[in-house]
């Protein structure tokens, strides 16, 4: 079993749709949680950190459930520019114990 | 912008030849990492460094070596390239503020390596 698992995707949604990404992690010692976005043939870029209280950044909402070891990302009012691969990332103490999920591809269509 | 550059950006080489990839950062961060990214595997850590001359192995270190003689440069060497090392290689840093290192990572633009 992989340490970080994501929906395999791809997700195909129309513009304006709400889309949810789910991620589970297996190591209860994990301390930091992130969502990254990766465009085709580009480097991953930090989208947002995920906190136990949940956090929101514009159209993006991230949630963390430590008891269930589950992380989510919600994108509201999808834009064409949201088309990318979304990576769930979990870190224990020290960046060298960072595990990246395989990613979920999102296609937003007009 | 985390000020990370990688060189070369693209390279084609032959099996058995040595290859060195360079990662350069401009902001004096202590932690640097090398990853490879392959379809179906996501990002996998090859080696990381926590200071000048301080390095350690990651998940997929076989066939790779690293060196860090200056804070700003982290080199990845394939001593004798094999076709299985065809991949996209990303360098990353964790930002440092004083004595504190943050867990988020920022990536360079990547190097596409093809071993024929």
Distance between the termini of chain A: 37 Å
Low-confidence stretches of chain B: none
Please give the most extensive interface between any two protein chains, plus how many residues each contributes.
A-B, 19 and 24 residues
Summarize the main sheet of chain B.
Answer: 7 strands, mixed
> What share of the residues of chain A does DSSP label as strand, in percent?
over 45%
Quote the distance from N terminus to C terminus of chain B. Answer: 34 Å
Uncertain regions spanning at least 5 consecutive residues of chain A? none
| Strands of chain B, count | 13
Shape field of chain B: globular
Helix/strand/pairing category of chain A: mainly beta
Radius of gyration of chain A: 13 Å
Mean pLDDT of chain A: 92
- Percent helix range of chain B: under 10%
Number of helices of chain B: 0
Structural features, described:
The complex is a heterodimer of chains A (110) and B (116). Chain A has 110 residues and is mainly beta. Chain A has strands at 4-6, 11-14, 19-25, 32-38, 44-50, 55-57, 60-65, 70-75, 84-91, 98-100, 104-109. In chain A, strands 2, 4, 5, 9, 10 and 11 form a six-stranded mixed β-sheet that branches. In chain A, a hairpin with a 6-residue loop joins strand 9 (84-91) and strand 10. By secondary structure, chain B is mostly beta strands. Chain B contains no helices and 13 strands. The mean pLDDT of chain B is 93. Classes of the chains: A mainly beta (110), B mainly beta (116). The interface between A and B is medium-sized, with 19 and 24 residues.
Brief account:
With 110 residues, chain A is mostly beta strands. Chain A has no helices and eleven strands.
Q: What attributes does this structure have?
A:
heterodimer, A: 110 residues, mainly beta, six-stranded mixed β-sheet, five-stranded antiparallel β-sheet, 0% helix, globular, B: 116 residues, seven-stranded mixed β-sheet, four-stranded antiparallel β-sheet, 13 strands
